[in-house]
Amino acid sequence: MYKFMRRIGMPMPKLLSYERYCFVAPHPDDIEIGAGGTVARLKAMGKQVSYVIATDGRYGGETPDMPVEEVIAKRVGEAKAAAAHLGVEDVTMLGFCESGWYDQNDLKKQVALAIAKAQPDFIFTVDHLVPTELHPDHNRVGLAVSDAYIHINNHHYMKELGGAAPERPLQGIAYFFTNRPNKYIRTTKYFNKQMEALMLHSSQVDQIPARGGGKKTMGEMFRLMTKIRNLRYGLRRCALQAEAFRVLSMSHTHVIPEVSERTLFGNY
Ligand SMILES: [Zn+2]
Questions:
Q1: For 63-89, what is each residue's pLDDT tens digit?
Q2: Cβ-Cβ contacts under 8 Å for 232 (sequence gap 6 or more)
Q3: Ligand 1 mean position to 30 CA, how many Å?
Q4: How many angstroms separate the CA atoms of 121 and 47, rounded?
Q5: 99: CA distance to ligand 1 center in Å?
Q6: Which domains are present in the chain?
Q7: What is the whole-number distance in angstroms between the Cα of residue 208 and the centre of ligand 1?
Q8: Each residue of 116-138: pLDDT tens digit?
């Protein structure tokens, strides 16, 4: 009975049913790794997709001989090329210095303004509440997007930030790189496209990690890891491959702790 009432009163958003989507990531390659198949599927469905990338990625990879300005420029180019390969032309780089050398309130403000400008129905970002996710940019960006999600439909709040609330109220949020997925998107047909886009981040994927002792490039490791992850999630939804998300509607996000409970059938 309770479950029935919960479904009626607080229905779970249907992830693919909206028109406009915004993906907000800490680093230039996160979206292709964590949700690239879903981006490719949304674009194939004719949806509007935009990216907001919070940091400049200056510490990603081992490039001791390259000036940091060149690293940043290279990563910006790679991010735009990878997005374009998936059909996404609207890419906003916020340019915060990678690895936490920025003010959280400033990040929160810039993220909210960028999302409001993109006017999405639905936003995607990284899950900042995964216990083993230690990267400060992932923790800070996931939190900043969550803050923005709570307040972005409020006209007074957005006006005080120097912007305006979106004309189309934001409907929901989905977290990728999550350990508590409750929604799955079948992406079998889009794996190759996702990997092609990921491989355009050559500053990252062409490296052979110094630690680990193997001879595989980061790209080969990412490809293997993503395939295994997608196959595992696909099994849960009778598909060959799927990507997994933690989805919350606006009504799930405040004073409803039941949403965090595990049920007999998995996460809420
Ligand atoms: Zn990242």
A1: 778 889 999 999 999 999 999 999 999
A2: none
A3: 5
A4: 11
A5: 10
A6: 2-252 (3.40.50.10320)
A7: 18
A8: 999 999 999 999 999 999 999 99
